[in-house]
């Protein structure tokens, strides 16, 4: 029998599940079993749990929730976690040592419930909130289940299993507190929770019409509730269950008063911070009057109003409780120009245009990326929908003549933003834009994530500081109805990095359709336009942005690199900062060894023109893999990038091709022919299987049919299997080479 059974429950798509499982498996104390419990074994989270079970005999996948995990557990003690929780290093060793020193192993009483030190890391901004203190009451029902160790024999003896479902933690804690004979507190930090966003969802739309998101105060309040947000009725069901059980046990004195106070602190917090109706307040008042212990003093105006179920008075009281938030919101609104606010407000009162769609990409930097690809397909398949593209004024000259363009910030801009039924963007619209009921917003994204995104950046302080307010970010996420994914990895990341109520469209990236629809003649025409000689192998060099200081020219001598490659190659450079003041690079351009394609607006054209890609950590590698052309990773500062920026997987362990850590290694990979050998093809094949799952040339059509034409999933083009896809071939110059000996 193992010492500990650690049950990790998964609610829906679990973007952080690997982090939770890895934190347990990395513990120095190894006498445990790990039971990931997933309601749907065929879901991505269930499949991931199965992979862990195959790799490690201590992992046992369970189908169901917490109750199913407990039935399968065999350990002496049980710890319940969720996918948002991690064990800190040495946590199990600390817990085991405490039990041996203070529990029955040391001749004392068996500990039924041990409350563990923990901290909640806010999802928006601010410092972690720690608990419980050394003198905390172990019977406090507001201490979280996910940081509580239970003796399994105690749970089995008292039948503490609750009905399957969500939102039962408060009732669980209450019933356990009533039954526990001996409880204790271990204040040492053992569990860390990255707070999920309670109730985060679009203000209106197909997934969450009329929903409202709870604020930061609700996220860190004392409740033990986890998983999906608990409604007012569910909260009162839990409170009533615990109070009825306490009454049946004739609980009296200080324990009865403490239990009542703890439970109604949760009810009062809900009444002051969450939407609640007259029925909730009246029922809460009846429960308060029926179960209030004798001798318990009334605590403040809100408590008196709650006891009376005074719904009308609460409507006055609740805004006062949110006064500080209102002041902050007012200060933010004051920054906006009065004229814009009045203009936009007037347009918002006009009816929606059911046949108007608005598109934007990269904060108005032009006609590009997924929004442009969807725009083109919309004009073909949904000509009844008027499609408008938003751009900055300086980009107007570069817009296609047949595309209706609107300048961001203009009077026309505020009109179309107020009245459009559909909006598409690969970033977020500005904060002032409101989500009207009945509108549909599609977040297309602009890359597959390697680096940490959204709220996953919080633990990386330098990056988080540059990101700004995570609260504002999440309010923008609330406007999303759909999030586009090109592979299951992206779906998992988006669900964790941008917690909300949007639906995932696993359709592929529309911008990548061109890699399958382009003809060889088009590739030749692009190369000719760029000046790429027919007999040269074109290497696209596209490094990514760094969030830390880096002397690029000192660490990578691009002029010398081009010279050492020899006449066989030409480098297509897509990076603006290399050429500034570098005489060597200017000479490489003059000699035809280097072509600067940084200013070329269509990244897809650059990819099509090249025969191979050299990059570091840029997301271009995921798109380029669709072409099934060689990719070489130049990772000279991987350790710094990983630790500073944060990543979702080890690129060096799962690369799309050969990896070079120095400039000399990179030259050898290219000049030896290894860049296109069998090993490179095998690595690329595995990479494509993971990250090109949905990109088959039909992504834009799926989006248009699903969103603009309202067709069901069964009516959309099915995904073509990877082995049957035919991307446009590379130029004849990229014929296979035999490695040098």
Description of the molecule:
The chain starts with a strand and ends in a 33-residue tail after the last helix. The protein is built from 30 helices and 22 strands. Residues 163-167, 200-227, 324-333, 576-581 and 737-741 have low confidence and may be disordered. Helix 9 (253-273) packs antiparallel against helix 10. Strands 1, 2, 3, 4, 5, 6, 7, 8 and 9 form a 9-stranded mixed β-sheet that branches. 40% of the residues lie in helices and 15% in strands. It has 741 residues and is of the alpha/beta class.
Blueprint of the fold:
Elements: E1 4-10, H1 17-25, E2 32-38, H2 44-55, E3 62-63, H3 66-72, E4 77-82, E5 85-87, H4 91-102, E6 113-121, E7 129-131, E8 148-151, H5 152-158, H6 169-179, E9 183-194, H7 216-219, H8 232-248, H9 253-273, H10 278-291, H11 300-308, H12 311-321, H13 323-335, H14 338-348, E10 353-360, H15 369-381, E11 386-391, E12 405-407, H16 411-419, E13 420-425, E14 440-443, H17 461-467, H18 470-477, E15 482-485, H19 488-497, E16 503-506, H20 514-517, H21 520-530, E17 537-541, H22 552-555, H23 558-565, E18 569-573, H24 583-590, E19 594-596, H25 603-609, E20 612-615, H26 620-624, E21 631-634, H27 638-645, E22 659-660, H28 663-671, H29 678-691, H30 699-708
Parallel strand pairs: 1-2, 1-4, 2-3, 6-9, 10-11, 10-13, 11-12, 13-14, 14-15, 15-16, 17-18, 17-20, 18-19, 20-21, 21-22
Antiparallel strand pairs: 4-8, 5-9, 6-7, 6-8
Helix pairs in contact: 6-8, 8-9, 8-10, 9-10, 10-11, 14-16, 15-30, 21-25, 23-24
